[in-house]
Design brief:
This protein has 605 residues and is an alpha+beta fold. The chain has 5 domains: 175 residues, 3-Layer(aba) Sandwich (Rossmann fold), CATH 3.40.50; 85 residues, Beta Barrel (Elongation Factor Tu (Ef-tu), domain 3), CATH 2.40.30.10; 81 residues, 2-Layer Sandwich (Alpha-Beta Plaits), CATH 3.30.70.870; 106 residues, Alpha-Beta Plaits; 114 residues, Elongation factor 4, C-terminal domain (Alpha-Beta Plaits). 27% of the residues lie in helices and 33% in strands. The strands form 6 sheets. The protein has an 8-stranded antiparallel β-sheet with strand order 11-10-16-7-8-15-12-13, with helices on one face. A 6-stranded mixed β-sheet has the order 2-3-1-4-5-6, sandwiched between helices. Helix 7 crosses helix 8 and helix 12 runs antiparallel to helix 14.
Amino acid sequence: MPIRNFSIIAHIDHGKSTLADRLLQATHAVSDREAREQMLDSMDLERERGITIKASAVTVQHTYKGQEYELNFIDTPGHVDFAYEVSRALTACEGAILVVDATQGVEAQTVANAYLAVENNLELIPVINKIDLPAAQPERVAMEIEQVLGLPAEDCMYVSAKTGKGITELLDAICEKLPPPRPPEVEETRALIFDSNYDDYRGVIVYFRVFDGELNVGDKIRMMGTGRTFQITELGRHRPQPEKVKTLGHAQVGYMVAAIKTLEDVRVGDTITLDARPASQPLPGYKEPQQMVFCDFYPATASAESPSAGKKGEFEALRDAINRLHLNDASFTFETEHSEALGFGFRCGFLGLLHMDIVQERLEREGGVEIVQTAPTVSYQVELTGGEIVEIHNPADLPDPSTIRSIREPIVKVEIICPTENIGDLMRLCEGRRGTFKAQKFISEGRQILDYELPLAEIIYDFYDKLKSITRGYGTMDYDIVGYRQDRLAKVSILVNNVPVEALSLICHRDNAEQRSRLILQKLKKQIDRHQFEIPLQAAIGGKIIARESIKAVRKNVTAKCYGGDITRKRKLLEKQKEGKKRMKTIGSVTIPQEAFMAVLDQGE
């Protein structure tokens, strides 16, 4: 039976998941009674937010010109933060369906995903979706596709995933236009792991595509990356419900259960081979994702003592939840971290802000843990006076200022697709964020592409929200890291009662340092309780104080008992009180509640 392996790629909200639903119905993989919206989005989180987070692989069958074809397709996420999921899916395919909304046209992630498919040498079928809508302009969008992506307008297929119009013709085109899988390159068995997840009863479930040879139930296999061996107890495919099979052969996609209990034994991108006849070379695997945003996760009830001091349960539960989730999403990193304010936790790296948000929510739902999250930061490169370059992800890790020659921050190339009337406002926004103008390209009447280079630290907080607000929801952006650049950056230390609090320190541009510092000090002033003595709150760069707030002391009315007499009696009492407050300030310590840290850390600005 001929096989076609392909992915569905598009910008967010262009109808990938709905198109996947119609493909399942058109190939009778699900009956009309079983069908529901977002069939492949199995997570509650995906349904609530209306976005795809995890790529889902399905096997269906379609008859074309009297011959039955086996179609393995993967529905992929559309948001820029999940580009790693898309790249993994494309590696397991020979072709891709590029879906474009007939009302929105080509958007930022459409372009990024198309380039990703071209890099992987995939055959592309452009599909214009939502042609049933009154505002649809399929011919205009077809010309946009030709102009921006270079795919001929006459090759575009017009479908409506909602009504099912054009779906059969699309299935025929997939069988006709997409290339068959490449022939086996070696005699030995090689299969590429593109996903995995953990089941409490069956252990690790591995999802793979066979590139060479075949796998059978009962085979003893070896993971080429880790060297561990296992025996296959179950093989199966998603149609879209799991269906057990005895054998998976060349170019087929499926899942495997092999009593794998340890999470470290499986790596996404690893190659499966037979233990009796191992392959000499593994498959290429995947390029490591580059984390863009970093933040700390702490158990909500943890203390600053060691995790063994009565709080081990929460820290261990968080570690287990992170380990399990990492098996399912290999694109985030984590390492143990300790904070004086929040205790033991993890420093995690993410591909973007939405990715960070989704990981936190999945940890809380699937792992059953409550999390305290710090403000997101980016990584910096620090050049020392000795010429050595170190990378830091946390302002507290910055070396002694006397040993620093320069600090470099990550720069991203941002591609903004927006209506023509918003060009001026968007340029002002980018200039205000220390952006460098690179190019302006014309797509169609009413829409243009703006290319800017911006510091990543300037776009991770609210840049996307401002972009959406300026363009009334019609603007889209995609970004890609291009390198590190030196600038006038400095570490701002926050001092409470003249004592530096490392958990609140930040790295920012000297021009913005005073404004950012004042915001932090004002928040701290509201959160820290008044003490018996005045508490100075200060922000400093090196030895220079750049901002200050004061929390007034709680005072007792010591003159209340004076009902007359000379004014010197009252002055004497007030002076005595003043001396006492001064003495108290030198020996007193300030208790900073956890809420104060969170008030500052949550906002980021």
